[in-house]
Amino acid sequence: MIEIAKKVAIKAGRKVLFLRKKGLTFKNKERLGDIVTQADTTSEEIILTELRKHFPTHNFISEEIGKINNHSEYTWLIDPIDGTTPYSSGMPTFAISIGLVKEGQPILGVVNLPALDSLFWAEREKGAFLNGKKIKVSNKNELIKCVVGLDVPYVGVRREAIERLLLPLADKVRYPTMLGCASVGGVYVAKGVLDAYIHSAHPWDYAAAFLIVTEAGGKVTDYNGKPIDWSKDWIDFFASNGLIHDEIISLIKQ
């Protein structure tokens, strides 16, 4: 399954890069500031067509099309372009994200960063990899030496997120940074580029990155330090190298 997911993510990544060079059209979603491009729907079609061909009895949840329920113990969680805003703006920090959950727990994850020629993947208890090389989280244990990624959700709730998450950390860490893509934030923790990453989004944004982080030796919980509940439609996602996890939680819970 991992090899098929990797091939599909690469295929979709090549297509969205081609479409961006060709020129994009997009439309607004219901939430203010949220957009979808024709590349999102094309990528989704590529991924779903290939995965359903190989795994026709599985369930599928994808950002644009929603749920396909076949009452299977396996569910694929797909974000055809995670980070549509950076993608449509010409930035490289966007991803194709494909995760597989079995009986409520991620068992496989692939995150392709096509503009950066970076393919991350992991299987449960088999480690995490970038372009075939094993990766590990950072070993920093002092906040003042740590770079922490943070992204805020939709227009209308951003002020609350900034006050709750960014302000308590702003003068405690070496540098807080925003990426605009949950998958990128997650895999950057797994690679050791970031020491922690904080964001709230949908499960398809995080299923793949969750496994990649944990298989790279990191830790992922919600903002209260509790395990991720994959049955929820909206998830508070906090990934770290594990060494600074509790200290950051104590700050954002105040």
Protein architecture, described:
It is a single chain. The mean pLDDT is 92. The chain has two domains: 2-134, Fructose-1,6-Bisphosphatase, Chain A, domain 1 (2-Layer Sandwich); 143-252, D-Maltodextrin-Binding Protein, domain 2. The chain is 35% helix and 28% strand. Strands 4-3-5-6-7-8-9-10 form an eight-stranded mixed sheet, sandwiched between helices. A five-stranded mixed sheet has the order 12-11-13-15-14, with helices on both faces. The protein starts with a helix and ends with a helix. Helix 1 packs antiparallel against helix 2 (38-54). By secondary structure, it is α+β, with helices and mostly antiparallel strands.
Characteristics:
single chain; 254 residues; alpha+beta; Fructose-1,6-Bisphosphatase, Chain A, domain 1; D-Maltodextrin-Binding Protein, domain 2; eight-stranded mixed beta sheet; five-stranded mixed beta sheet; 35% helix; globular
